[in-house]
Amino acid sequence: MRTQIAIIGSGPAGLLLGQLLHLEGIESVILERRSRKHVLSRIRAGVLEQGTVDLLCGAGVGERLRDQGQVHDGFEIAFCGLRKRIDLRGCTGSGVTIYGQTEVTGDLMDARDAAGGALIDEVSDVRIGALQTRQPFVEYTRAGDTQRIQCDFIAGCDGYHGVSRSAIPRDVLREYEREYPFGWLGVLAETPPVGNELIYVHHERGFALCSMRSSSLSRYYIQCASDEVVKRWSDERFWDELRARLPPATARSLVTGPSIEKSIAPLRSFVAEPMQHGRLFLAGDAAHIVPPTGAKGLNLAVSDIYYLSRALLAHYRDADDARLQAYSEDCLRRVWKAERFSWWMTSLLHRFPQAGAFGERIQQAELDYLFSSRAASVSLAENYIGLPF
Ligand code: RFL
Ligand code: PHB
């Protein structure tokens, strides 16, 4: 098989790249390890930056997003029994859009099918090679058959546990990592959300987040131990713990119901540099992970794809490779700022087992400062709505 771009992974990064290339008449093949059904049922992110919304709309997949996405002009932070609001629009002129990653993936899959683009799912033993030549290749096995795709470039969009990153030699790749001593236990429930906007909760029992997907679908998270197991959390135990972390009036108005999804995600910060090697380009979680507190992971995957699609277009249309050469540098400038912000939001809002009384006082002082200084809230707001591409 031969194509222009071989894309590994059909998460938001891989699918969006496929769609943007298709609009420019550049051909691609997408390889996915899991089944299509599995990819379409994963519950993940919920907050889209305006830059992400604009790019998705420009890519022709904005119809449902414009119709069903909820624009939020602010969010709240609860601490010491109080709820205080960050006025995103008042601080920056922009808001964010609540629209599930599951929906984004569904819209992009539909567009892929409508375009007749190749998406081969349930592949295994993906192997990439000849990266330093003009004819790199990807090999994979499907239903016992091994195939080789010859291509011009490879996009490694296969997430944190993918194979692409490991194709960069050890002496070239540098990895930066921080693990946090806790995870998030998340629940999705068909109940009306407890607030009109998201509520991030700092509490001595641990962090909590009240989010949503629509006016009848809520998404809640609570900080849990890193070695926690989902089986130990009945719905009742989850709701009791969440209620205990909310300000009293908010806890009383919480509507509970049976969970339709419950899972635990570890929290991690991670960056791999460089994001390119020969004709391989990494994008999204394959190259970097942020803890979800800043709502940046999906948005970063989208901004990488913005840089990569632009660079590939310049290669094919103008025979100009300057942007391909600068790809890693261009992405990493924005990636590190989102890493900083996500680390900071995580440090501000979680309970750190080792922090001690001093650490807790510092968190309280920082929260107090945040709501008494316009400069501090503007700084938070401009990072939350997303720095420019
Ligand atoms: P994905 O979505 O992980 O997709 C990678 C795809 O590659 C496939 N794959 C392979 N395919 C072929 N061969 C192989 N060897 C392969 N290995 C893996 C996988 O099956 C998968 O389909 O990465 P991508 O596209 O880079 O997208 C990144 C986002 O998914 C991720 O950053 C966000 O979900 C992070 N995130 C959030 N981001 C936000 O911007 N806003 C949020 O509000 C937000 N909330 C969250 C989140 C992530 C969470 N979890 C579960 C970690 C909340 C949570 C709880
Ligand atoms: C979500 O709705 O899943 C969500 C929202 C905000 C975050 C993280 C996750 O910071």
Walk me through this protein's architecture.
This protein is α+β, with helices and mostly antiparallel strands and 389 residues long. The protein has two domains: 5-72 and 97-177 and 268-345, FAD/NAD(P)-binding domain; 180-267 and 352-384, D-Amino Acid Oxidase, Chain A, domain 2 (2-Layer Sandwich). It has helices at residues 12-23, 36-41, 50-58, 63-68, 88-92, 101-114, 235-245, 248-253, 297-318, 322-325, 327-349, 356-372, 374-384, and strands at residues 5-8, 28-31, 47-48, 70-72, 74-79, 82-87, 96-98, 118-120, 124-129, 137-142, 145-150, 153-156, 174-189, 199-201, 208-214, 217-224, 259-273, 276-277, 280-282, 288-289. The strands form four sheets. An eight-stranded mixed beta sheet has the order 6-5-14-15-16-13-17-20. It has a six-stranded mixed beta sheet with strand order 8-2-1-12-19-18, with helices on one face. It has a three-stranded antiparallel beta sheet with strand order 3-7-4. Strand 15 (208-214) and strand 16 form a beta hairpin. The longest helix has 23 residues, at 327-349. The protein is globular and about 60 Å long. The chain starts with a strand and ends in a 5-residue tail after the last helix. The model has no long low-confidence stretch (mean pLDDT 97). The structure holds 8-demethyl-8-dimethylamino-flavin-adenine-dinucleotide (RFL) and P-hydroxybenzoic acid. 8-demethyl-8-dimethylamino-flavin-adenine-dinucleotide binds next to helix 1, strand 13 and helix 9.
